[in-house]
Specification:
The protein is mostly helical and 133 residues long. The protein has helices at residues 4-7, 10-15, 20-31, 33-46, 48-60, 84-129. The longest helix has 46 residues, at 84-129. Pfam families: DUF2852 (PF11014).
């Protein structure tokens, strides 16, 4: 297994919370949803408010439904190959793809907002057009 500094870009490491809770969250994220469920169950067994807090956090952070914050970070990372030219090319390509992904997500958000506004405007027009207004 590779160390975290080899597999996770430096900006991701600095953006993650530090401290015992941050390290515990990162450790559970690496192991996936089953680890979160086990932690929640153990929390309920040890002291029910702990289990309830973990459940609330899982729902709030969308970890309960498989959409953890980890999904906003690169999903692919590999150990260096030893060929610096290839490693640099791979990092540049992955960075470009991550940037494009972020731009696409922003584009989709703007589309959703425009659709919501159009639907709201249509509702307001229909409401104003009703007799008696």
């Amino acid at each position: 297994m590779h160390s975290a500094s080899q597999t996770i870009p430096a900006q991701t490491l600095t953006s993650r919370a530090s401290g015992p809770f941050g390290r515990a969250r990162d450790w559970l994220d690496e192991r996936g949803r089953p680890a979160w469920i086990v932690a929640m169950i153990l929390g309920f067994v040890a002291f029910w408010p702990i289990g309830l807090a973990i459940l609330g956090y899982m729902i709030w952070s969308k970890r309960m439904f498989g959409c953890s914050k980890r999904s906003h970070h690169p999903r692919y990372s590999a150990a260096p190959t030893g060929n610096t030219a290839f490693d640099a090319y791979r990092e540049e390509t992955l960075k470009r793809l991550e940037d494009e992904h972020g731009e696409f997500i922003e584009f989709l958000q703007k589309l959703r907002e425009a659709k919501d506004k159009a639907e709201f405007d249509q509702f307001m027009e229909q409401r104003d057009a009703k007799p008696g207004n």
